[in-house]
Amino acid sequence: MYRRILLAIDGSRSSLHALEQAVSMALATHAEVSAMFVADDSDLFFEIRPADRPWLMAEVIAYGERVLTRASERLSAAGVRSSSQLAEAPGPPAKIAEAIVAEADHWGADLIVMGTHGRRGARRMVLGSVSEHVVSKTVRPVLLVRDRWEGDAL
């Protein structure tokens, strides 16, 4: 069944639930999990001036490292073989999705597991959906995990 699970994680509640699904699937199938955080600046377009971006990207990267550390700790505590990586994909959600799909292809993932935020309205029209882009760009199975209470969880 699944031997290599790529977990795209961003620290949100939905990605925490995706982590738990990846743990369950890995334990059931004796799979290895590779946790991936993609540092991006797509959300920053709405919140900062361009001059602030380099400093904030450094913060996003530091946050991603903390998220990956906590995910690795959870995977290890469950007895799941795992690795982690942080990638940078500045730009729109399509770039984030391309980074996830490229890693899944490179690593030979059997499954991609990720949370989905369920954005709606103008924010979704401008940003699009990373999960939608991943599903449309990959030939691999994708498990999308949604949580109705969004916010930082890791």
What does this structure look like?
The protein is an alpha/beta fold and 154 residues long. The chain has one domain (4-146): 3-Layer(aba) Sandwich (Rossmann fold), CATH 3.40.50. It is built from five helices and five strands. A five-stranded parallel beta sheet has the order 3-2-1-4-5, sandwiched between helices. Helix 3 (93-107) packs across helix 5 (130-137). The longest helix is centred in the middle third of the chain and has 25 residues, at 53-77. The chain is globular, with a radius of gyration of 15 Å.
Low-confidence stretches: 121-127
Q: What kind of oligomer do you see?
A: single chain
Largest sheet: 5 strands, parallel
The averaged pLDDT comes out at: 85
Helical amount:
40-55%
Give helix and strand order, one letter per element, not per position.
EHEHEHEHHE
Q: Please, how many domains?
A: 1
Spatially, the strands of the biggest sheet line up as 3-2-1-4-5
Question: If helices are DSSP runs of H or I spanning 4 or more residues, what is the number of helices?
Answer: 5
* CATH domain fold name: Rossmann fold
Radius of gyration: 15 Å
Secondary structure elements and pairings:
Elements: E1 4-8, H1 13-29, E2 32-39, H2 53-77, E3 82-88, H3 93-107, E4 111-116, H4 121-127, H5 130-137, E5 142-146
Parallel strand pairs: 1-2, 1-4, 2-3, 4-5
Helix pairs in contact: 3-5
Descriptive key words:
single chain, 154 residues, alpha/beta, Rossmann fold, 5-stranded parallel sheet, 5 strands
